[in-house]
Design goal:
It is globular and about 50 Å long. It has a 6-stranded parallel sheet with strand order 1-2-3-4-5-6. It has a two-stranded antiparallel ribbon with strand order 7-8. Helix 6 runs parallel beside helix 7. The protein contains 7 helices and 8 strands, in the order H-E-H-E-H-E-H-E-H-E-H-E-H-E-E. It is of the alpha/beta class. It has one domain: TIM Barrel, CATH 3.20.20.
């Protein structure tokens, strides 16, 4: 399987250069990766989380140079250019301009901030008085809105908002199914993100039951570690393949120039 979601020092909350992630992928037998720093969002919630969430706009050219250096150093590895882009309503024009700056291979859509929530709330920490099904619904509603923009290629960590012991399917199954239907309609893929296996949630994003829904509904899939350090590249990929087998492998796709280039057993 390929690893289509990884960060580096450009994100400020991750460590290592692009070449360090490429080396880790090579050593683990992964032949194709995509580097996906969080895009700059000038003026959006300045100071939030100590400004340690995303790449600065002035660093973008340095990111592209590091990509080329890594490609030269590891010619046996396919290294795609990508970004992880928050979908934030009313930021669409900025996002479209930013994405026109380079010939990206892959653009992940993530939802961390919900427009109808308070300024200090985000997907990892929202008001405890907020009914959980309502919070889940607002999250998926904004996700569907982002899918409809056509600005993205793939939904990142689909059920990131879930709380331990309170899976989104228990209360918001229709919301999840609507998101998957929208992805199929728009030709977007959904990633299976293994980073949850190293966190308190203890499972992938999305969970196994949603992965089964994805394969049943014909959703295109990419696999990712969401690595924030080189030793996390390819995390839990073998276990993922063992659990879902051929049904998963048949839905895997590759990207080139923001288009699906092939499917099956990536």
């Amino acid at each position: 399987m390929n690893d289509y979601h990884m960060h580096s020092h450009f994100c400020r909350h991750a460590e290592g250069r692009v070449a360090d992630y490429a080396r880790a992928a090579r050593d683990r037998g992964i032949t194709e990766i995509c580097v996906t720093p969080h895009i700059p969002l000038p003026g959006f919630r300045p100071g939030f989380s100590g400004d340690k969430l995303r790449m600065d706009e002035t660093e973008f050219d340095s990111y592209l140079r590091e990509l080329e250096e890594a490609r030269s150093a590891f010619p046996q590895l396919t290294i795609l250019s990508g970004v992880e882009a928050d979908y934030i309503p009313e930021q669409e024009d900025w996002l479209a301009r930013f994405l026109s700056r380079a010939a990206f291979d892959f653009v992940l859509m993530s939802i961390h901030f919900i427009s109808v929530w308070g300024e200090e709330e985000w997907a990892f920490d929202f008001a405890r008085h907020r009914p959980l099904p309502s919070a889940y619904h607002e999250y998926f509603q904004q996700m569907r809105q982002g899918i409809q923009t056509g600005l993205f290629d793939c939904v990142a960590h689909l059920d990131l908002i879930k709380k331990p012991g309170q899976p989104v399917l228990a209360t918001n199954c229709e919301d999840v199914e609507n998101v998957l239907d929208a992805c199929v309609s728009r030709g977007m893929s959904v990633e299976i993100n293994t980073s949850g296996t190293r966190k308190g949630i203890g499972e992938t994003y999305p969970c196994d039951r949603i992965i089964t829904l994805m394969t049943e509904q014909g959703v295109n899939i990419v696999t990712s570690s969401d690595a924030h350090a080189p030793d996390q590249v390819g995390l839990s990929f073998r276990e993922l393949a063992d659990r879902h087998g051929e049904k998963l492998l048949r839905r895997l796709v590759r990207y080139r120039g923001r288009r699906v280039s092939s499917a099956g057993k990536c």
